Amino acid sequence: MINRIDHIGVAVKNLDEAVDLYKKLGFELKEIEEIPEQKVKVAMLPVGESKIELLEATAEDSAIAKFLEKRGEGVHHVAINVSDIEKALENAKANGLQLIDEKPRIGAGGKKVAFVHPKSTKGVLLEFVEG
Ligand code: ZN
To answer: Is the full-model pTM beyond 0.85?
Structure first.
Protein backbone atom coordinates (compact mmCIF):
# COMPACT_ATOMS: atom_id res chain seq x y z
CA MET A 1 0.00 0.00 0.00
CA ILE A 2 2.90 2.35 0.83
CA ASN A 3 4.94 2.50 -2.37
CA ARG A 4 7.68 5.12 -2.11
CA ILE A 5 8.48 8.69 -1.25
CA ASP A 6 6.60 10.55 -3.96
CA HIS A 7 8.20 13.89 -3.24
CA ILE A 8 9.54 16.19 -0.56
CA GLY A 9 7.86 19.59 -0.41
CA VAL A 10 10.09 22.59 0.25
CA ALA A 11 8.62 26.02 1.01
CA VAL A 12 10.46 28.86 -0.71
CA LYS A 13 9.96 32.61 -0.90
CA ASN A 14 10.83 32.96 -4.56
CA LEU A 15 10.22 30.02 -6.89
CA ASP A 16 12.34 31.22 -9.84
CA GLU A 17 15.28 31.91 -7.58
CA ALA A 18 14.92 28.51 -5.90
CA VAL A 19 14.67 26.70 -9.25
CA ASP A 20 17.84 28.44 -10.45
CA LEU A 21 19.63 27.37 -7.29
CA TYR A 22 18.56 23.73 -7.61
CA LYS A 23 19.59 23.75 -11.30
CA LYS A 24 23.04 24.83 -10.20
CA LEU A 25 23.12 21.70 -8.03
CA GLY A 26 22.36 19.55 -11.08
CA PHE A 27 18.60 19.16 -10.76
CA GLU A 28 16.37 19.44 -13.80
CA LEU A 29 13.09 21.29 -13.83
CA LYS A 30 10.25 19.05 -15.02
CA GLU A 31 7.42 21.53 -14.77
CA ILE A 32 5.98 24.53 -13.01
CA GLU A 33 2.30 24.44 -12.17
CA GLU A 34 -0.04 26.79 -10.36
CA ILE A 35 -2.64 25.22 -8.06
CA PRO A 36 -5.18 27.99 -7.37
CA GLU A 37 -7.20 25.95 -4.80
CA GLN A 38 -4.11 25.66 -2.63
CA LYS A 39 -2.81 29.12 -3.45
CA VAL A 40 0.59 27.81 -4.46
CA LYS A 41 2.88 27.61 -7.44
CA VAL A 42 4.96 24.43 -7.54
CA ALA A 43 8.08 23.38 -9.40
CA MET A 44 8.80 19.67 -9.74
CA LEU A 45 12.42 18.52 -9.87
CA PRO A 46 12.78 14.75 -10.45
CA VAL A 47 15.04 12.69 -8.18
CA GLY A 48 14.88 9.15 -9.60
CA GLU A 49 11.35 7.91 -8.91
CA SER A 50 10.78 10.78 -6.48
CA LYS A 51 10.80 14.55 -6.75
CA ILE A 52 11.63 17.69 -4.91
CA GLU A 53 8.55 19.94 -4.94
CA LEU A 54 9.39 23.61 -4.48
CA LEU A 55 6.39 25.61 -3.25
CA GLU A 56 5.81 29.33 -3.48
CA ALA A 57 2.73 31.03 -2.00
CA THR A 58 0.50 32.92 -4.44
CA ALA A 59 -1.57 34.63 -1.73
CA GLU A 60 -1.05 36.05 1.76
CA ASP A 61 -3.46 33.53 3.26
CA SER A 62 -1.84 30.52 1.59
CA ALA A 63 -0.71 27.75 3.97
CA ILE A 64 2.78 28.18 2.51
CA ALA A 65 2.78 31.93 3.28
CA LYS A 66 1.86 31.14 6.89
CA PHE A 67 4.55 28.45 7.09
CA LEU A 68 7.22 30.84 5.75
CA GLU A 69 6.17 33.51 8.22
CA LYS A 70 6.39 31.10 11.16
CA ARG A 71 9.26 28.83 10.22
CA GLY A 72 11.06 30.36 7.26
CA GLU A 73 12.15 28.47 4.16
CA GLY A 74 12.71 24.74 4.39
CA VAL A 75 11.18 21.27 4.31
CA HIS A 76 7.40 21.64 4.49
CA HIS A 77 6.06 18.11 3.97
CA VAL A 78 6.91 14.56 2.97
CA ALA A 79 4.65 12.93 0.39
CA ILE A 80 4.13 9.17 0.33
CA ASN A 81 2.84 7.44 -2.77
CA VAL A 82 0.07 4.99 -1.91
CA SER A 83 -1.94 2.60 -4.07
CA ASP A 84 -5.30 3.49 -2.55
CA ILE A 85 -5.62 6.90 -0.90
CA GLU A 86 -9.13 6.29 0.49
CA LYS A 87 -7.85 3.16 2.23
CA ALA A 88 -4.77 4.99 3.54
CA LEU A 89 -7.00 7.72 5.03
CA GLU A 90 -9.42 5.18 6.48
CA ASN A 91 -6.54 3.31 8.07
CA ALA A 92 -4.97 6.50 9.49
CA LYS A 93 -8.32 7.54 10.93
CA ALA A 94 -9.02 4.09 12.37
CA ASN A 95 -5.68 4.36 14.16
CA GLY A 96 -6.62 7.67 15.72
CA LEU A 97 -4.47 9.96 13.60
CA GLN A 98 -5.63 13.52 12.99
CA LEU A 99 -6.35 14.17 9.32
CA ILE A 100 -6.25 17.56 7.64
CA ASP A 101 -8.19 16.13 4.69
CA GLU A 102 -10.91 13.62 5.46
CA LYS A 103 -11.33 13.19 1.72
CA PRO A 104 -8.72 13.43 -1.04
CA ARG A 105 -8.44 16.63 -3.04
CA ILE A 106 -6.74 17.26 -6.36
CA GLY A 107 -3.11 18.33 -6.07
CA ALA A 108 -0.14 18.81 -8.38
CA GLY A 109 -0.30 16.83 -11.61
CA GLY A 110 -4.05 16.28 -11.13
CA LYS A 111 -3.36 13.52 -8.61
CA LYS A 112 -5.47 12.71 -5.56
CA VAL A 113 -3.76 14.00 -2.40
CA ALA A 114 -4.58 14.29 1.31
CA PHE A 115 -2.67 15.57 4.32
CA VAL A 116 -2.22 14.08 7.79
CA HIS A 117 -1.70 16.56 10.63
CA PRO A 118 1.88 16.86 11.91
CA LYS A 119 0.57 16.62 15.49
CA SER A 120 -0.18 12.97 14.73
CA THR A 121 3.05 12.15 12.92
CA LYS A 122 5.86 13.37 15.18
CA GLY A 123 6.01 16.80 13.64
CA VAL A 124 6.06 15.77 9.98
CA LEU A 125 3.30 17.05 7.71
CA LEU A 126 2.53 13.90 5.75
CA GLU A 127 0.89 13.94 2.34
CA PHE A 128 -0.60 10.86 0.72
CA VAL A 129 -0.50 10.82 -3.09
CA GLU A 130 -2.25 8.25 -5.24
CA GLY A 131 -1.14 7.38 -8.74
ZN1 ZN B 1 3.32 17.88 -1.97
So the answer is: yes
